[in-house]
Amino acid sequence: MALKLYVDRMSQPSRAILTFCKVNGIDFEEVKIQLAKGQNFSPEYAEVNPMKQVPALVHGDFKLFESHAILIYLASAFSGVADHWYPADLQKRAKIHSVLDWHHSNLRRGSATYIFNSLIALAFGLPLNLEKAAEGEKILIASLAKIESFWLQDDGPFLLGNSQPSIADLSLVCEVMQLEVVETKDRDRILGPHKRILKWVEDTKNAAAPHFEEIHSIMSPAKDALLNLKSMAAKKEAESPGKLA
Amino acid sequence: MALKLYVDRMSQPSRAILTFCKVNGIDFEEVKIQLAKGQNFSPEYAEVNPMKQVPALVHGDFKLFESHAILIYLASAFSGVADHWYPADLQKRAKIHSVLDWHHSNLRRGSATYIFNSLIALAFGLPLNLEKAAEGEKILIASLAKIESFWLQDDGPFLLGNSQPSIADLSLVCEVMQLEVVETKDRDRILGPHKRILKWVEDTKNAAAPHFEEIHSIMSPAKDALLNLKSMAAKKEAESPGKLA
Prior knowledge:
The structure is a homodimer.
Chain A: E1 3-7, H1 12-23, E2 29-32, H2 43-48, E3 56-59, E4 62-65, H3 67-77, H4 90-118, H5 130-151, H6 167-177, H7 184-191, H8 195-207, H9 211-215, H10 219-239
Parallel strand pairs in A: 1-2
Antiparallel strand pairs in A: 1-3, 3-4
């Protein structure tokens, strides 16, 4: 049965599912849906995902969206995926659901709100909103502290003290990687104090090598393009104050 | 193995897991953690759930939080739970994960933000924040529209067109029931246009009778108490403007 993944590599959950498939040798067709070009709003894409977001999956006749649901489906429906990604043991599996659920209202919400309102909005022709960015940063920083103090435990390098990564590590690390597009001083201010998180990101990269790096190779040119937009916006703002916020 | 559920019946996910256990004949001890009294911040409770939220589960030595993870665990770990609550079929299960994941950033976020900032904050001694309440209401209304136009389908009365309820119906309907505490005119303004949602709430109540009603019997006295707090706050505001927002 043909597997199609509808993704934008600028989207952190898209990168998580692409990395998962590559690491686990799952064959798929990558269908690029460029959010900044509004391709997610086409009538054709509404047939794939009526919520008009990426990522989405089509597997034969079966359609699915929401990245955590997709990761769980991929880990369950394809043979050959090692157990550590999504353990069969009920209690181990439950803990992974717990991390993934927590992610939605904490790390994801904080990170996406901060980065969108402080930078990525410009790629959508929208003004920055520094008040909302600050709200997002507060949630992001509290979430990183919880990852460092609670979700990363002493027993092993991955979430929940695991010795090998799960789908939760992929999902959350791809979220942290989104900070690669913001100014280096901002990234360092936010991530710098969290040595353990930085090590966890490296460990996850290594466990998913070389695919993780290949899929994230978009981050560096994206950062250049976004910071260029930001400096143009700042120039316009200086010429005609009040138009951007 | 003893099962303890740490809950506050004023919390919608707490009500979902209580209802699920009662309907499925799962024995448990209900440990009441009153959020408005700050009981979730005690050092004892931090041992149960370091995130200091309800609900949480302790089953023998196993601890778990996040209500969706708890519902999935309960449906999987206890024999005798009918398949429709959390189907074994991978694709049916994946669709339920998709609803639950969507819920976090849509219905839950909108509803909780709206109700907390327009009313429940007062129970925590906090001021109302009408700007945030309006932001929440916008997300809530968009979410209700998506439930009505997409998640409820023609084939059956429950989410995804199912003929019997799943854990997703319980979780989302308990969220909608949170609107029972707001002023009737506000509830009717928000829910009134959604006849299909109102029918779905009734169908879920009936499928989970009589436990659903019993567990939600807290809503009516809670509404009286909250609206009383609101009218006292309005009186204070009239006497000394600007202190409350």
